[in-house]
Amino acid sequence: MKVNKLHQDFKEFYKGSDTKYSLFFEFEQSDEVQKIMRMFKKGYWSAMPFGFNRKDVVSIKLSPSYSIEDSPLVKFSNITKVCTTIAPNLKRLLPMCALDYIDDEEIFIELQDDINEILKQATSFQKHVNGEHELEFYKDYLLNKENLLFFKNTPKEREKFYIDFWNHYNKSPEQEKTVTLLKKLLEDQSYLPDYEEIDYGIWNTYIYNSLAGRANSKLRTETKDLWEYYWRGVQQPHGFDAMGMVVDGVKPSLNKSKSNISGLSSFNSSWEEEYDCFPKEVQEHPIFHATESIRIKGDAYIGEEHVLAAAILDEKYNDPIGAWNALVSAGYWAGLNESPAVEVIWETAIYLAEKHNWTEIHEVLVQQYEYYNFYKDKV
């Protein structure tokens, strides 16, 4: 049974081909059903799996804000059970997977030696996703022996290489704003900008989680005017691009799955009498109440208040995107406990997608739910 059409198309297109060392990911593995089902049972019904990078599941991150073709890609870690952004869209996945794979001088030299076979398979893939022109920068990078210096020198230079790749493959004002802010946060561990409503594009969750963590570190010395960081942070979809209390690198962390709510819920647990800093409209917001439930219930929380928040956001606030994000967060918390509530949340997302004519997302959610129900008692 196929999980979605994209995965099936890739499996058929590359049947019998070994893509592990040329594309840096595979479309078929002997335990793929177990890996995909593990991801779904962990509440990541909002991910559209189609390949495997080592032990991780590579997926498109479903969001009503983007078409599937333009949606960012994430990988689900079978170790940490969280998702992190790895590419801006499907056309740019291959060079970004290579970036993740090339982490020392020996691998870089290996790839240079195998450049012809790599480019042959890479061109085939890029044609399949209508992104053949995306290979030029990647090819020039591999063939440039001077780039070996990245692996001979400091980690800071390695990070520069990482950022340069992202800047090339995610050319946008949002990417520029993200990198500008990240550089300031990395250079000064006490830096916290004046709060502004800024769109960081596909990095919104990563940046606002990071800012909430940085604000939290200042909590005991500067309680004034920090609430906005917490509030924006906890409204992000939980379980994606989690960061800790400080920014500790240019990549989203894979190790801090519950840090999405480190802002407001941690704030509440330490300063329960200090709610006055939150405006009345925030305190009455359904996501505020849902976050309070996380603080009270801790790991026993299974997302029920976020499901209720989604209904209120959709019907009373006329905010279907906020409702979607609330359901994604609900799925994460239900999945953390591997609760059957994941199924109810998934069904609610299907209803929301149908109601708002998110046709692409609706089709994927329905097909993947059928896959889930077929295998849920088998693996």
Given the structure, what is the number of helices?
17
Overall spatial form:
globular
Would you report the number of β strands? Answer: 4
Report mean pLDDT, rounded to a whole number: 85
Largest sheet: 4 strands, antiparallel
What is the ordering of alpha helices and beta strands? HHEEEEHHHHHHHHHHHHHHH
Write out the strand line-up for the largest beta sheet, numbering strands in chain order: 1-2-3-4
Short key terms for the protein model shown above:
mainly alpha, 379 residues, 4-stranded antiparallel beta sheet, 52% helix
SSE map:
Layout: H1 5-13, H2 32-41, E1 47-53, E2 56-61, E3 73-76, E4 83-87, H3 93-101, H4 105-113, H5 115-128, H6 135-143, H7 155-169, H8 173-187, H9 204-217, H10 227-234, H11 264-270, H12 280-283, H13 286-297, H14 304-315, H15 320-336, H16 341-355, H17 359-375
Helix pairs in contact: 5-6, 9-10, 11-13, 13-14, 14-15, 15-16, 16-17
Notes on the protein architecture:
The chain is mainly α. The chain is 52% helix and 6% strand. The chain has 17 helices and 4 strands. Strands 1-2-3-4 form a 4-stranded antiparallel β-sheet. A hairpin with a 6-residue loop joins β3 and β4. α11 crosses α13, α13 packs antiparallel against α14 and α14 runs antiparallel to α15. The longest helix is centred in the C-terminal third of the chain and has 17 residues. The radius of gyration is 21 Å and the shape is globular. About 3% of the residues have low confidence.
